[in-house]
Amino acid sequence: MPISSSAATVEKKKVVRIQKQYQSIDQNEAQQTERNLLKIAPALPTKDKRNLYVRSHSSLNALSVTKFHESRSLSESVVLRTHPDGSVHVSRLQEEKEAHPDRISLDRRGLTCIPFIDGEPRLRLLSLQHNLVINLEALSKQTFLSLVFLDIYDNQLEHIQHLDTLENLRVLLMGKNRIKKIEGLENLKKMEVLDLHGNQIAQVGGLSLLSELKVLNLAGNQIRIIGLQDLHGLHSLQELNIRRNKLKKLLGFADTP
């Protein structure tokens, strides 16, 4: 039998009233449950004043694994002095040596050459990003037995030279320079990461002795062909970046597992 409109209205009000009762019960239970649960703090505090981790345009760089230092504290703790013979020498305050015994950042210091770093036998990481360095000759006149990470991103280098003494080097970042040829890496047999993006390289070569190399970044160069022998010897290669080149032919991958 059809329900009259008045009866339907009464029935609807009853349903709404019951729904409100259940909602009230659910809210009370939710509040009680919330009180019994542990409070979880935000993953990122809104007023976090810690130093930020930063990266530059290179795939890897020194600042990606170290904290950014404010320019004022950096200039006070790392001092550059020019000797009478024209050579530039680096000295650090003792407290800076104790805080960072294995790393030195000389980013954005207007350097045109590699400075001499005295009294740093434990140096493992050296960053020279955003300078005007035109050659690496001073590296061959110093002893860096422990150096494993060298970052020379965004300088004026045209050649890869004077790295023969860095036999323990594992990471070499030379992106955004003026390099035209891959050379001078024969002695760096422990190297695992080589970043040469943003240069003027037209041909791949000079890598056959880097059997430990895992990451090779050649993005943003002028490479047209990867030849049959270009990747010969790179038995450990896991990542190859050749974006933004002028590629027309890819060969030589048969022996690159």
UniProtKB/TrEMBL annotation:
InterPro entries: Cilia_flagella_integrity (IPR050576), Leu-rich_rpt (IPR001611), Leu-rich_rpt_4 (IPR025875), Leu-rich_rpt_typical-subtyp (IPR003591), LRR_dom_sf (IPR032675). Keywords: Leucine-rich repeat, Repeat. The keyword Cytoplasm does not apply. It comes from the Eukaryota. It holds the Pfam family LRR_4. Coiled coil: none annotated. Cilium-specific protein required for cilia structures. This is Dynein axonemal assembly factor 1 homolog. It comes from Aromia moschata. The lineage of its organism: Eukaryota, Metazoa, Ecdysozoa, Arthropoda, Hexapoda.
